[in-house]
From TrEMBL:
GO terms for biological process: methylation. SUPFAM superfamilies: S-adenosyl-L-methionine-dependent methyltransferases (SSF53335). Gene3D superfamilies: Vaccinia Virus protein VP39. Residues 53-146 form the Methyltransferase domain. It holds the Pfam family Methyltransf_25. This is Class I SAM-dependent methyltransferase. One of its GO terms (molecular function) is methyltransferase activity. Coiled coil: none annotated. Keywords: Methyltransferase, S-adenosyl-L-methionine, Transferase.
Length: 282
């Protein structure tokens, strides 16, 4: 098995296991938390446009549904994700959430899926493109699925050092847990697109042109009551949580929760998400 195959397998295992289940469980919280990014992706569309749009790493469907509500009746949206539980949840949402344009969801790996060539006018993603084992191959596959002059519009995380909120739980919990191996900066994961120069090169190598990568800082909020479920279900700590003994869980909560004090304000958790906004043309 090659390194890329091992990474593909690990991502599929993760998102069809504990991580996928957590995102389904916390769907409402996460939708609200990341709505500013959804709004930005939707705002780039002309209202009522009859476009065919692909949402990469669509998760439980919030962005795809919002896009479908913005498009005209002649448009359509396809959301794709490797997580079966998340796609099932997204499909269930379509049964009670009407949209102006049709929306469909597909459980598949966008890196390898055989899309119809030249199908999409626009390809978007909210934090869904940092997990490819071979990003050049993945974006080459997406380039072939795009029509001539189609637009690519992505949002991805900048460096973890600029995203203190996202690393607080892991840093606070570290003294109570076995040491983890150092994370390779370019390995598939939340911060794999932190290096702007690398992202530009891989997109250009995959055949995209007019690549523009600009810093994007967005204010995110959630109720303070959602904080404990957030850090015990998501991220590296969330992945370990099911295997931890009850007494260790109690110690971790007592240690980790106070570490978020700088982000608490008037009953809310508030932080600035430091991201890249990435645009390119097919």
């Amino acid at each position: 098995m090659t390194m890329e195959q091992r990474q593909d397998h690990e991502q599929a295992r993760l998102w069809n296991g504990v991580a996928g289940a957590a995102w389904v469980e916390l769907q409402a919280t996460l939708d609200a938390l990341f709505r500013p990014f959804e709004t930005r992706l939707v705002a780039a569309l002309a209202d009522g446009a009859d476009q065919t749009v692909l949402d990469i790493g669509c998760g439980t469907g919030a962005t795809a549904l919002a896009l479908a509500q913005c498009l005209g009746a002649g448009g359509q949206v396809l959301g794709i994700d490797i997580s079966e539980p998340m796609i099932a949840h997204a499909q269930a949402r379509t049964r009670h959430q009407r949209t102006r344009a049709p929306v469909a969801f597909l459980c598949a790996d966008a890196e390898h899926h055989a899309f119809e060539p030249g199908r999409f006018d626009r390809i978007v993603s909210r934090f869904g493109v940092m997990f490819f084992a071979d990003p050049v191959a993945a974006f080459g596959n997406l380039r072939r699925a795009a029509r001539a002059a189609a637009q690519l519009h992505l949002i991805a995380w900048r460096h973890p050092g600029e995203n203190a909120f996202m690393t607080t739980a892991e840093r606070a919990a570290a003294p109570l847990l076995p040491a983890s191996p150092p994370r390779a900066p370019d390995a598939p994961g939340q911060f794999a697109f932190a290096d702007r120069a690398r992202v530009r090169l891989l997109l250009e190598e995959a055949g995209w042109r007019d690549v523009a990568i600009t810093p994007l800082d967005m204010e995110c909020r959630m109720p303070e009551s959602a904080l404990e479920p957030y850090f015990t279900r998501l991220g590296n700590l969330g992945r370990l949580w099911p295997s931890l003994a009850p007494d260790l869980r109690e110690r971790l909560i007592a240690t980790v929760r106070p570490a978020f004090a700088p982000f608490l304000r008037d009953g809310e958790v508030c932080f600035t998400a430091a991201c890249w906004e990435i645009a390119a043309t097919a």
